[in-house]
Amino acid sequence: MKLSRRQLLAATTAAGASLAVPGVAAAAPNLVRRDRAALPSGIASADVTPSSAVVWSRTDRPGRMIVQLTGHGRFDRAISLRGPKTDGNDDFTARLPLRGLRPGQRYDYRIGFEDAYGRIGETLDGSFSTPGRNRPVSFVFTGDTAGQGYGINPELGGMVAYRAMHDTRPDFFLHSGDNIYADGPMQAELKVADGTVWKNVVTEEVSKVAETLAEYRGRYKYNLLDGNVKSLYADVPLVAQWDDHETLNNWYPGEILDDSRYVERRVDVLAARAKKAFLEYLPMEHVAGRDRIYRKVSYGPLLDVFCLDMRTYRGANPVPSTAGPVAMLGAEQAAWLVREVAASRATWKVIASDMPLGLLVPDGDLIEAVANGLPGAPGGRELEIAWVLSQFKKRKVRNAIWLTADVHYAAAHHYDPARAAFTDFDPFWEIVAGPINAGAFGPNQLDPTFGPEAVFVKAADFPSQSPASGNQFFGHTRIDPRTGVFSVSLRNLFGKVLWSKDINPA
Q1: Which of 327, 289, 324 is CA-nearest to residue 311?
Q2: Which residue stretches of 88-192 are H helix?
Q3: Residue 296 belongs to what H/E stretch?
Q4: How remote is the C-alpha of 301 from its chain's centroid?
Q5: DSSP H or E stretch at residue 479
Q6: What is the maximum alpha-carbon separation in the chain?
Q7: Which of 7, 44, 204, 216 is the most exposed place for a label (fewest CB within 10 A)?
Q8: What are phi and psi of 403, to 5 degrees?
């Protein structure tokens, strides 16, 4: 491995880690003793760039994270790093940023936790590859896990769509929100409208709506009981963002609930607990010491991914006829998005949006997403998006593609000012994927303001159709380093390609 101890030491000590003492690396993988720390939720890597990554795990007792890192698959020659200590305050989760990595390099890592006597318990192995020049980039994207009461079904083999994504051998996995359904209780059996019965593994934490920090944490632990999920996370770096169901359906800051299922009705209180659990269980590179979910993940010369947060900074859900501006990204995030996308030198700029731009997503009589369903000039949340799109045009941004989830079906939309009421923007694509293990729905109504055309749609046969139907969807992308072509496809539960498109770079 062409990576010096000095490089890694300088990087990891900045995050509170230091080189391990000799002998720590001697722990054998997968050796489990009851008096030693176990790893019940597996391991993961995240936010991999040409020179950095984050590794994560959770143990079952207080301890210090120990990470062995090698670039050649031989752990007898690995560098050992002492990571942070963990305890009940962070639910025994720990993450360690790694910096000073080499571009275009495969890394293998081994994680265990050390007790007060220097003994390491169970260890698990994972891998990730840093992006490099002249190499293709591939990734999968989707959203919506364990919703509408559909959890881990042992008769189906668990969350098998995660296996289908894993089988494509992607460089990373973009989860565009609704990683959990904190507001959706699960039962051992669920009757489906087609007469079938869906069976779930259940735990105490998923038996009611989540309100306490322990209950929010329990939702993430539940998903990590599934072997398909754990296997993907060990081999494929994660890029995670959130939407509403990590807290509760259609929430916005300042909301007071009128829902008898909840003892705590202040959404701001619930959202703070939900965000703590989210950041504990879904590792990411923190921005300037802030627990900020929106961020850029640079994946080499071919790709930058801009992860949005359309939940934290939004205004109250408006009525469709609202003419004045209503925040969706908020002024600071919108300005950040325009500034960073315009400055990007990558061939492709993926805007990872947790909600679609042109699909009507109602919240009763109110508007939950961007589109208000009305023709004509932008209004409400559409005004903020119109400003972003016009700024992209003004600053000559090329090759921006929006990827999203949320609506529980698959679609490909092409936006063109020639069809639009608002015309100050350049044409672009929006690709919709999901759910990956939840009830399938759709299709939703398209709003004409930005001129979208539904080039492809695959929706449920009936509302809240079970994953067993096969109507679970993820996207797959491969970028060719020679031509720069962005090849994108939409696939079902079994990985079958339903639609594909080669998009040439401008």
Answers
A1: 327
A2: 160-167
A3: strand 295-298
A4: 22
A5: strand 474-479
A6: 69
A7: 204
A8: -115, 140
Contact 306, 341 (CB under 8 A): yes
The region, left, alpha or beta by phi > 0 then psi within -120 to 50, assigned to residue 448 is: alpha
- Indicate whether 188 pLDDT > 90: yes
pLDDT in tens, 356-400: 999 999 999 999 999 999 999 999 999 999 999 999 999 999 999
Are 383 and 334 in contact, with CB atoms under 8 Å apart? Answer: no
pLDDT digits over 2-11, tens only? 444 444 443 3
Share of the chain above pLDDT 90, in %: 90
Rounded to two decimals, the pTM is 0.93
The CA distance from 37 to 114, in Å, is 7
Q: Do you know the residue count of the chain?
A: 506
Q: Which H or E element spans position 272?
A: helix 267-281
Whole-angstrom distance, CA of residue 152 vs CA of residue 134: 40
- Model confidence at 325: pLDDT above 50: yes
The average confidence (pLDDT) of the chain is 93
CA–CA separation, 32 vs 30, rounded Å? 6
**pLDDT-derived band at 36, boundaries 50, 70, 90:** confident
Question: Distance between CA 108 and CA 3 in Å, rounded?
Answer: 13
Kindly report the number of other CB atoms within 10 A of residue 457's CB atom: 17
Q: How far apart are CA 166 and CA 275, in angstroms?
A: 27
Give residue-wise pLDDT tens across range 131-148. 998 899 999 999 999 999
Which two structure tokens, joined as six digits, stand for 168?
A: 């494509």
Q: For residues 101 and 98, give the distance between their C-alpha atoms in angstroms, rounded to a whole number.
A: 7
Of 9, 132, 155, which Cα lies nearest the Cα of 69? Answer: 9
How crowded is residue 14: how many other Cβ atoms within 10 Å of its Cβ?
A: 10
Please tell me the distance from the alpha carbon of residue 216 to that of residue 247, in angstroms, as a whole number. Answer: 8
Strands 362-363 and 366-367, bridge-based pairing = antiparallel
Structure tokens at 473: 């969807």
Query: Residue 211 phi/psi, 5° resolution?
Result: -130, -45
Contact 381, 369 (CB under 8 A): yes
With a cut of 90, say whether residue 20 has pLDDT above it: no
Task: Tell the residue number behind the tokens 């492809």, with chain if given.
Answer: 456
CA pair distance 471, 440, nearest whole angstrom: 7
Least confident window among 8-12, 92-96, 459-463, 487-491: 8-12
CA triple 374-376-377, angle to 5 deg: 110
Tokens of 341: 């996308």
Going from the C-alpha of 28 to that of each of 77, 112, 119, 354, the distances in angstroms are 14, 10, 12, 41
Q: Both tokens of residue 232? A: 């993907």
Question: Smallest Cα–Cα separation from 172: which of 126, 109, 129, 230?
Answer: 129
